[in-house]
Predict the 3D structure of the following.
Amino acid sequence: MESSEIVAGRYAGRSVLITGGANGLGFASAERLGREGAALGIMDLDEAAIERSVARLREQGIEAHGYLADVSDEAQHRGAVADFQAATGRVDAIVMMAAIFPEVPFDELSLDTWRQVNAVNLDGAFIGAQAVLPIMREQGFGRIVTIASETFLIGFGPLASYIASKAGVIGLTRVLAREGGAHGITANCILPGLIGSEQNLARPNIDDTFDMIVPTQCIPRRGEPGDIAEAVAYLASPAASFITGQSIAVGGGDRFL
């Protein structure tokens, strides 16, 4: 991808917490924000990945803190937010990357799986938002960046639980925009298209999937984690002060909102 230049110092003095930040799109976003001066909180369920990602960030001179927490566990999630605020003095932005997306034929989807996916993807976003809003109101500044998916725009039976949870995230984001607007808080949702993340590249027949999707895009190339990091870096920054409640597709123009 052709990346825009790093805006040195754009995040100086800012603290950003990223759920699911130890791998993939989460880590790409963390690295981008850290290079622009942010102090980072990396929340994840993978302890080894947390240690590895925090070490990589610190090697670049980036302030980084790791938090082992399940986003669907209210006590763990709120505890990580509180610990990050204590460590940095602020929570200027939260980026909600944590998600699970089991691919199960609709007729075989169990209620337990449905509930688990919604617990992580939707309940986790709700818990995080409810934890940071009072902090951001007191600061008079905040950025909430949620993550949905372009699959919401097309529907796909084997991802029914994931798509339904992300529809909820979009609705929650609009509520948060109303809740936070008068306090200098914005909330926006990014809908990634097909991206060459670690998880996607590990899927069977992924090259065939790219070969099918890329020609439908206005910009005919593969999406990369850095493309999502670019969008996060703008929406979580002070520059995006008059954008809120929006769902922004980042998929090369294969779908229009």
User: Anything to note?
Assistant: The beta strands are 15-19, 39-44, 64-68, 93-96, 142-147, 185-192, 247-250.
